[in-house]
Amino acid sequence: xxxxxxxHELLDTFVTGQLPASFSAAIAMHTELCEICRNKVAQxxxxxxxxTFISSAADEESDLTADMLFNDWEIDSLIxxxxxxxxxxxATAAVPQAISFNHTEYLLPRALQHIALGKQLNVxxxxxxxxxxxxxxxxxSLLHIQxxxxxxxxxxxxxxxxxxxxxxxxxxxxxxxxxxxxxLNNKHTHSPTTQQGCLCYTVVDSPLTFTDGxxxxxxxxxxxxx
Amino acid sequence: xxxxxxxxxxxxxxxxxxxxxxxxxxxLFKWFAPKIIRFGIKTLNTEAHAKELLQxxxxxxxxxxxxxxxxxxxxxxxVYTVMRNVSFDxxxxxxxxxxxxxxDDIWPMLDSDENSNEDAYxxxxxxxxxxxxxxQLPENQKQIIxxxxxxELSQEQLAKQLDIPVGTVKSRLRLALAKLKQYIGEDS
Lengths: 226, 188
Prior knowledge:
The complex is a heterodimer. Chain A is an alpha+beta fold.
């Protein structure tokens, strides 16, 4: 069962379309698996639609309207040019795509179907493939950890988001299962391990810093995971 | 009064979806335009982007109205999600210089006309095998197969899009299908 969910604030910004694509994709993949959050999103969409289109508050500040940007003639010609095209757009059912990590095939979630994936890099039991989203310091990746693998104790300067796509892992704070949406910041230190192996989607906005003596040598690994 | 308005918007949208009703579309356009412009200026910052948002959103409304199901939600919520998706892709273009239009993957559109999901799954292994073979085709034949079978374009639309005669589309399609049959035959 899914125990960890995105915060209300995150869902609210997601609904307005103003969250970076890396975070939006994570929430989309979570809601695909989580009915509770799916319902919350539907509710929030309706709330935002009302405040944007219906509520009187929206009308009060209508000092700037389309009339000021378009004249009547322009509006009519825009309407004509749109309705002059008879094409319709069908909802196309996505053909699920597979991705393979260490000879295991996984179904790629719908949200990632059209995002280019970088080549897979390996360090020990970890395999990483970066998503080509081009969002500056925010890096999104698919991270596969083979059974028995772990990441040494580390912390983050910024935020680390993990969405567990398959399998499970444990850390000092508990056990995580498929669909769990985990957000950690610089206040957390953890060392995740996985017994059966797992596939995660991760978003990190600054490199990981390893905190334990010998693991400090691994700090290049921090850049690898970032 | 709010309920009347909600009902009216929904009726317009249904008319567009069922009958390509241009008058209903004009009504809807004029009702939503100032609000979309205001949203556009707030989220995309410039008037030019707000205008583009309005045009793109209303074009999608015209082309996708048939997917609106008035028993499942308000017209205003439906238009909001269409606008939000356009705005998301525009923001991506502005901030990350990416034209990958992934909003429809993040917020998949559910088609009420056809139960597309049920049809998609039984075939999915076959589709995957096929797409491997399709990738083996020469580029110009691959284009045609993908256009016709994966994007469901007509041969005429495809000819126009690729700027080649319909006859060429037909002959490439014939060649490609013959090759695909061969590939599948070899496997079994």
